[in-house]
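Hi F.,

I've been meaning to write this up properly since the lab meeting, where we talked about keeping a consistent format for the predictions we share between groups. The idea is simple: the sequence comes first, exactly as it goes in, then the structure tokens exactly as they come out, then a line or two of notes. No screenshots and no reformatting. I'm using this chain as the first example so we have something concrete to point to.
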Amino acid sequence: MRQFGGSWSESKLNCVENYALAYLQVMQKQHWYILHYVDAFAGRGKQVLKSSTPSSAERLELESFFGDYSERADTETFLVGSSLRALSASRSSARPFAHFTLIEADKSSCDELEAVIQSEFPDMKDKVDVICKDANVALNEYIDLVDWTRTRAIVFLDPYGLEVRWETVVRLATTGACDVWYLFPLGGVIRMMTNDGRIPERWQVRLDQLFGTHE
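Output, unedited:
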């Protein structure tokens, strides 16, 4: 299992999990809507934490996103990912999600995620679709299949880099029914914005896809 993230990653995921719980509580009596949870970069379900203490750079990133940060002495050895947290939140809620769409491009990660769900959430596996495909392609297919007059969804976009295309974000917006969490890959953008302004063509293409414009 690959090492991943740090204490800031856990705090970020706690924030999303708490939002899912609050969302389900708000929607508890709105039974005319079918509730979905979508994770476009679901990963393996669990990851090994890189270290128990965040680096100075990680701490700065955390503080800029969440405000004041009180460092803890210990963290879990394994980081439970967003998809498993959503399943856990749903299981503990009076109004659960009706369906989970978990997308991951890497086949081995999909296999591990399915195995974890089978092991830890066997009672919910019939509600879960694990889709091994590019996130943009899978999200567009998902949008086309859903009846958005009767469905509401949380869509979590936490890309590994610059994978999310702006056209995908626009399509999610046109549903009028998705609460979208998009953790924007600012670090990757800054690395491509060269100091001399001479950006390689292949980087320009990636940036154009990310922003939806060359302006």
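Notes:
The first strand starts at residue 3 and ends at 4.
The chain has two domains: 3-184, 186-215.

If this format works for you, I'll send the rest the same way.

G.
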